[in-house]
Design a protein that fits this description.
Layout: E1 12-17, H1 24-31, E2 37-42, H2 64-79, E3 83-90, H3 93-97, H4 102-119, E4 124-133, E5 136-141, H5 144-147
Parallel strand pairs: 1-2, 1-3, 3-4
Antiparallel strand pairs: 4-5
Length: 148
C-alpha cells in the first residue's frame, strides 16, 4: 500500500533506492503512479545503508549513511519537498552477501526511517519494500507496528 494517503500525488518524492539494475526499473515504474516527481538517489544497498545496524557502514572508508543523510537534506531543498521514500528489496546482492533475511531487511529499513526522522525535522518518511520472485513483483508499504 503506497499512494495518495501516504504521499499526495502532487508532491515531489525523494527516493533512496538500491542501484540494482534488475529491480530499479520496476520500482520506478510502480512509484511513478504515485509521485509527481521522483528524485532518486541510488547506492548499493539503498535504504539499508541508512540503518545503524548495517554491517558495512564504515567499510567504505567513510560513513555512507552520513553521506546519504546529507544528500537527503540537499534534495529536500533542491526539490522543495519533505517526502522521502526509503526502499529496500529482496533478493538483494548486498543483503545476501551479509546473510540478511527478509525480516532483517524489513527491520533495517524501519531503523533507517527512525534514523532519518531523528536527524531531520519535518520529513515524512515512507518505508517501502520491493519483492521479486521470478515474474511476480510487488512494491509495498512496510508497517512498523505489524513487524513487532
Amino acid at each position: 500500500m503506497y499512494g495518495p494517503k501516504l504521499v499526495p500525488r502532487s508532491e515531489n518524492l525523494i527516493l533512496i533506492s538500491c542501484a540494482d539494475g534488475h529491480q530499479l526499473p520496476d520500482i520506478i515504474e510502480h512509484l511513478g503512479n504515485f509521485a509527481f516527481c521522483r528524485h532518486t538517489l541510488t547506492v548499493h544497498g539503498g535504504a539499508l545503508r541508512l540503518s545503524r545496524n548495517f554491517p558495512e557502514n564504515g567499510n567504505a572508508g567513510y560513513p555512507v549513511g552520513e553521506f546519504l543523510l546529507h544528500q537527503i537534506e540537499e534534495a529536500r531543498g533542491l526539490k522543495k519537498t519533505n517526502a522521502l521514500g526509503l526502499i529496500s528489496h529482496y533478493p538483494c546482492a548486498i543483503a545476501t552477501r551479509h546473510s540478511l533475511d527478509i525480516p532483517t531487511v524489513l527491520a533495517m529499513t524501519i531503523d533507517a526511517k527512525v534514523r532519518v526522522q531523528e536527524a531531520m525535522s519535518g520529513v515524512k518518511v515512507v518505508p517501502l519494500f520491493h519483492y521479486c520472485d521470478g515474474d511476480r513483483r510487488r512494491t509495498m508499504f512496510i508497517n512498523a507496528k505489524r513487524l513487532r
